[in-house]
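pipeline: protein-struct stage 2 | run 1193 | Helix-turn-helix domain-containing protein
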Amino acid sequence: MDFPRTLRERRTRRHVSQLDLALRAGTTQRHLSFIESGRSVPGRNMVVRLAESLELPLRERNELLLAAGYAPAYPESSLDDPVLAPVRTAIDHILRGHLPYPALVVDRGGDLIAANTAFDLITEGAADELVGPGTNVYRLALHPDGLAPRILNLAEWARHILVRLGHLEELRAELTGYVPELEPSAGQLGFAVPLRLRSSYGELRLMTTVTTFATAVDVTLAELKLEAFLPADPATAEALTAAAGPPRHRLRWTPPPSRS
């Protein structure tokens, strides 16, 4: 990677001027200009400061360091690594504690890492190859053999999924082909767009929240997302409670595949 070009691209993508970035990183605009033109070679600490000032994800910070000729600063552990055992335990508690409502954990590419038993109600009827640890939850949601035939507001819900796939161009292109045209809404938008899903317990109306580890310094941990579903009406809450089964004795963990 060409470091000056890479830095400039990261900066312009975030609509940060040279002056603003220089002030955030504790340097001068002149020095930053020299770095971006290749006339000055930054030290490791300066590269780290620039990456932090741009609020780059940890993976991109490592890429910027590599482009400058330095070793990565942030480790990328396997989820099976003993160092992440407390994280696995904590997420296990969160997933179980969210019952009887569905919750799951995915990696940066949307591949399923773990889920609680209530998520089975979401995936009922989907093709086997689209369900389970290591499969992609975005593909599960929009594929014709996945949840798509049961989503009553597919076009509306799909748009919210697609906007999250900016860094996954191939997957976004594939899933876009499954999505019908979105008709402009003539009614009230309400306070949130629910997922309206047919199920064996009737129609479910679900809201979602996404949780991340904000202070993570490990790439794997920083890229995990815990998505929790919440009932948007009393009928959905009653249906999820009725469908709840006994909790699993153990959650299956699948390390996310390495990505260059």
